[in-house]
Amino acid sequence: MRIVSKEELDTRRKVERGTKQQLETVQEIIRLVKQEGDSALRTLTSKFDGADLQNFEVSGKEMAAAQTRVDQTVIHALTKAASRIRQFHERQRQQSWFITEADGTILGQKVLPLERVGVYVPGGKAAYPSSVLMNVIPAKVAGVEEVIMVTPPLPGGDVYAPTLAAARIAGVDRVYKVGGAQAIAALAYGTESIPRVDKIVGPGNIYVALAKQAVFGQVDIDSIAGPSEIVVIADASADPVHVAADLLSQAEHDSRASAVCITPSRILAGQVAEEVAVQCARLPRRKIAEASLENYGAICVVKDLDEAFSVANRLAPEHLELMVSDPWKWLAEVKHAGAVFLGMHSPEAVGDYWAGPNHVLPTSGTARFFSPLNIDHFVKKTSIIFYSEDALQRDGENVIAMAEAEGLTAHAESVRVRLNKKRAGE
After folding, report:
1. What pLDDT band is residue 426 in, cutting at 50, 70 and 90?
2. Alpha helix positions (H), 37-160
3. Continuous H helices in 332-425
4. Are strands 297-301 and 3-5 parallel, antiparallel or unpaired?
5. DSSP-assigned letters across all residues of 198-246
6. What is the CA radius of gyration of the chain?
7. What confidence score (pLDDT) does residue 422 get?
8. What kind and span of H or E run contains 251?
9. pLDDT-based confidence at residue 17 (cuts at 50, 70, 90)
10. What is the dihedral of CA 91, 80, 137, 142, to 10 degrees?
């Protein structure tokens, strides 16, 4: 793992936008699904997933059978994790509110859940039951009426059993065996068997990301997610074994994942580099981790912790670990991060699976302006305005003045006719 200075550290990772060929492929897939519906889905599922399906929906019998095929230790862990995730997100609920002014004017905001949400769950190189929990439970807590899940089938037509078990635990209403850009198109426009949704959330490959980008506006989406990232700020008190393990926990995700350690200790930097090499050699996903570390991994040596936080804020990472002797003291220096893990006993993996906060986080520096997935992603807010006659008489001339300044005379007249009617009756 390279040891670099802050000047050598690449602090600008670009969001992948896809090649021209990938964009054209996605556009063609969307066109086919819009025109041919289920017929296109069957053709594309056979082509890309090697599964010949007549019916896409997972039956209740299949859901129940999947749960029996999963080790009960995993079922227990998923159930307990679901409870913790639910409890955390229940604290985010917002209520509708109204204020009444002295003249009778009533202003307010009505908070309503979305009616139907689509959740995409990957099923290719890796399957993530934890992502089912993280995407579905906030929607359910928000009050979404119907959650539709789509996930690619295995070549024989089945779905990865832990994914279905997680769906059942999270409360998914319907599951469909379809993946890729074609699944996103089906959710956005609807087919004979898959209903159209209001919003699509969940991670996927570049084709899924490009498809979500293409249908945005037809439906809402959560974000265009990039490769996973971790930054570990460590001082001399940090255990290099722990630092290395946490860096590798992200590097094993994807060959394009980013793992960076920032430290003022050159001794620790050397120890971490050695430990990464030792631990990486033992990983089943060693080749993926090695490619990630070669292209996007680094240990950055800085002069002090103040500089370390300055560099980290420029990176605005998805995950930020503070492996320093007094992490709470330094939390105030964090300006941009998707999630912050404080202290020696808070590895990023705890947040991925168990702690409760959402693991769907902003990537590629977008933590500068995006937030983790939360209840607000699954509700919409409607403004409520009631004006009394006295209130309109009081404010009407000001409204007219602003409307006429913008050249919108009909706006002004809609107020003026009410003021004139009142005055004519006086």
Report:
1. low
2. 38-49, 60-69, 72-90, 129-142
3. 348-353, 389-405, 409-425
4. parallel
5. SEEE----HHHHHHHHHHBTTBEES------EEEEEE-TTS-HHHHHHH
6. 26
7. 61
8. helix 240-251
9. low
10. -30
Integer Cα distance of 244 and 272 in angstroms? 6
Does 165 have pLDDT greater than 70? yes
- Write out the two tokens for 353: 């699976």
Give the helix ranges, DSSP H, for 286-405. 286-296, 305-315, 327-330, 348-353, 389-405
CA distance 50 to 158: 11
Q: If we measure between CA atoms, which residue out of 232, 314, 293, 225 comes closest to residue 268? A: 232
Task: Report pTM.
Answer: 0.91
177 beta partners: 151
Whose CA is closest to 37, among 188, 220, 146? 188
Catalytic residues: 318-319
Rounded to an integer, what distance in angstroms lies between the CA atom of residue 52 and that of residue 322? 49
Give, as one character, the DSSP assignment of residue 8. Answer: T
Residue 71 to residues 64, 134, 136, 174, 262: CA-CA distances in angstroms? Answer: 14, 21, 22, 23, 39
pLDDT in tens, 44-62: 999 999 999 989 999 999 9
Residues 156 and 182: beta-carbon distance below 8 Å:
no
Residue 205 CB neighbour total at 10 angstroms: 17
Question: What string of DSSP letters covers 139-181?
Answer: HHHHT-SEEEEEEPPPTTS---HHHHHHHHHHT-SEEEE--HH
Dist. CA 132–CA 127, nearest whole Å: 10
pLDDT averaged over every residue in the chain:
93
Task: List strands edge to edge, sheet with 339-342.
Answer: 3-5, 297-301, 258-263, 229-234, 319-323, 339-342
| Angstrom distance (rounded) from CA 165 to CA 131 | 12
CA 244, CA 283: separation in Å to the nearest integer?
13
